[in-house]
Specification:
9 helices, homodimer, Tetracycline Repressor, domain 2, DNA-binding, mainly alpha, 195 residues, 68% helix
Chain lengths: 195, 195
DNA sequence: ACTTGTCAATACGGTAGCGTATGGTCTATC
DNA sequence: GATAGACCATACGCTACCGTATTGACAAGT
């Protein structure tokens, strides 16, 4: 993930050399690596093998790139939530959230976004996705027979545990390094959150 | 917390006009507000009512300030853990962690630090404090009769829940806005984490 | 072949922040 | 009250990045 090689995915020659989506993806990767301050026009351009002359053709300014990146992220997050909703059994469905902490792709990006969600340009996107996950979890708990307020508390607990865990594991990768320890902890959390 | 007024706390005339500790405090406040990129020499100097001529007398460079700020934070965090260890009943002790999520002073700073803990200058400090909290929780669970590995899982769960909750509440202050709802959720979490 | 529109390179000015060098001011102390 | 050291101001050069303006390359359609 570096390269001045823009020929990946064998883009048809007719299509533009760079698209706003490519820029947005690069911005998301930058956020994952170094936060919002890493979303800088010239460095990203170097990373993509072009100059900022390209950037300012596709975007109004830096803020517009950030917004586009967040739109892209929200879209994918919504899609992930929809995928996680297809599981019929609510208990299995909830467990899938816990298990997704181990996914070193979406979890890392979700975390990175939440880390920069203090910024007013990111906050509304993060809030909407938070809301959706909370609603998703609440629905699962309701299907399990909990009252509305009860389900809300369970949902908040579950989503908190999810977010907190991936953050701690990011900083302390030594904590659940063995697959065995991780599976054990996943069982523990499942037993705690899925009564 | 702003002003070119350096005469607060009625400092004796003999003492220096600014101390490294004051700079470190200002840096911590900046981290809380805008992350590491807000720890900038000239803006902080303006905030303190001086110029960077003062700063470079007290510190080698910007990195030295960041390190000093993190040392100060770690010191206080260790003190807070020691305070939280004085409670005799392990269950009450654990509940104190949950309740401290509501403390809008330490919790916010702890969160802000964890948000920038990806930076190599911050990471070691955050890791050490994480470790201490985990050990603290593990000890409590052991006192409650759990085995070592079991206590470790409980501790990780509890600390995850703590970190995740304050992060979500920061972004969604509307979620537990009423005192009643918060107390209810605290009871819920306590029931979940303190069996 | 000529034109048009798309995309990118180059060159430019502007700002914010880092770090240095040097000089100034106050205070304690003799 | 002269001096030394602690503390701060000012002025400077440097780099990184933002945004604009202009020009250039290249493809598609005519």
């Amino acid at each position: 993930m570096v390269y001045p090689d823009r020929m990946k995915n064998h883009r048809a020659k007719k299509s533009p050399r760079l698209t706003p989506e490519i820029w947005a993806d690069a911005a998301l990767e930058a956020i994952e690596q170094g936060g919002l301050s890493s979303v800088a026009v010239e460095p990203l351009a170097r990373l993509l093998g072009v100059t900022k002359g390209s950037f300012y053709w596709h975007f109004e300014n830096r803020d517009a790139l950030i917004r586009a990146a967040m739109r892209q992220w929200e879209k994918r997050a919504i899609h992930a939530i929809a995928e996680a909703s297809r599981i019929t059994d609510p208990r299995v469905r909830l467990r899938s959230l816990i298990l997704s902490s181990a996914d070193r792709t979406t979890a890392k990006l979700d975390l990175a976004v939440s880390l920069v969600a203090g910024d007013p340009r990111v906050r509304p996107f993060a809030r909407r996705v938070d809301r959706r996950w909370l609603d998703w979890a609440e629905a699962a708990y309701r299907e399990m027979g909990h009252t509305k307020t009860d389900a809300k508390h369970w949902a908040l607990s579950a989503y908190s545990a999810y977010g907190g865990l991936i953050q701690i594991l990011r900083l302390n990768p030594d904590i659940l390094k063995s697959k065995r320890a991780w599976a054990q902890h996943a069982r523990h959390v499942a037993g705690m959150l899925v009564p």
